[in-house]
Design brief:
- This protein has two domains: 43 residues, Orthogonal Bundle (Arc Repressor Mutant, subunit A); 175 residues, no CATH class.
- 62% of the residues lie in helices and 0% in strands.
- The chain is built from eleven helices and no strands.
- Helix 8 packs antiparallel against helix 9.
- The longest helix is centred in the last third of the chain and has 27 residues.
- The two termini are 32 Å apart.
- The N terminus and C terminus are likely disordered.
- The structure holds a DNA duplex (21 and 21 nucleotides).
Length: 242
DNA sequence: AACTCTCCCAACCGCCCTCCG
DNA sequence: TCGGAGGGCGGTTGGGAGAGT
């Protein structure tokens, strides 16, 4: 059993935040920085519990949050990472730094689940035209065991990253050179792959490669490359989880 | 115009993890 | 080593908005 809820004391306000409350919270965090949420209600006079303050900040008020429709590239990243990692929304969100875990979770539950079910239904009745561009962005180098193994195996993730990195190494190397300068490119690439692997395997936020990964994933040519690869070696890709 | 239905998303709840005394 | 406290995460819900009748 966990601890009793922190918000059950009398006088704690629930429900939607008002603009006034938002301003108070923002002002406080601008002054003190995020963290020590327990002290926020006390120091600000907000009649909210600490969790509510943290949630409001991380999911709504935090700078850099992107709102509105998800791009096809973002969808592809979510679908692929969900297949790999399961419902670990916080980890998935770390690869889409402009989106919150709550947003991603909501988007998955309201849009992508349905979309993938429909997609799976249509894949069950295959058309002669082959794969379409709406399929999830696939990643190579993974075994085809059961869904649970697939989602939980760090070996698989490691292999996947290895294969993935190898398959796109030329492009990434070029990108690294562009970002880091000619002399630091190769070293930068090696550091990037190490960091990315570590980030995946530890379930923590990857550091350096985020911008790299993002810039690569957001390029439409990437999706095209993947489509070509799928057509050339369709058996090399993991099956969708549902 | 009024009512019902459906969808979406902000927020809550309960549990787990980590830290610290 | 143990237990309490705080932070974090994933699942779920409730209410508002828009669509449909």
């Amino acid at each position: 059993m966990g601890r009793p809820p922190c918000c059950d004391s009398a006088g704690i306000k629930k429900g939607p935040w008002t603009p006034e409350e938002d301003i108070i919270l923002i002002s406080y965090i601008q002054e003190r920085g995020p963290g020590n949420w327990r002290s926020v209600p006390t120091n600000t006079g907000l009649m909210r519990c600490s969790k509510s303050c943290r949630l409001r900040w991380t999911n709504y008020l935090r700078p850099g949050i992107r709102r509105g429709n998800f791009t096809p590239q973002e969808e592809a990243v979510i679908i692929q990472l969900q297949g790999l990692l399961g419902n670990r929304w916080a980890v998935i969100a770390s690869y889409l730094p402009q989106r919150t875990d709550n947003d991603i979770k909501n988007y998955w539950n309201t849009h992508l689940k349905k979309k993938l079910k429909q997609l799976h239904a249509s894949v069950a009745a295959p058309s002669p035209s082959g794969p379409t561009s709406n399929l999830p962005l696939p990643l190579p180098g993974i075994n085809h065991g059961g869904a649970a193994d697939y989602a939980s195996s760090t070996d698989n993730i490691s292999r996947l990253l290895e294969g993935w990195m190898n398959s796109c190494k030329p492009r990434l190397t070029t990108e690294c050179k562009r970002l880091a300068g000619e002399d630091g490119g190769a070293a930068g690439f090696e550091r990037s792959t190490d960091n990315l692997s570590a980030g995946f395997l530890d379930g923590q936020q990857a550091q350096l490669p985020l911008s790299l990964l993002e810039s690569w994933l957001l390029e439409e040519t990437a999706a095209k490359q993947v489509e070509e690869l799928m057509e050339n070696s369709p058996d090399a890709w993991p099956r969708p989880l549902f």
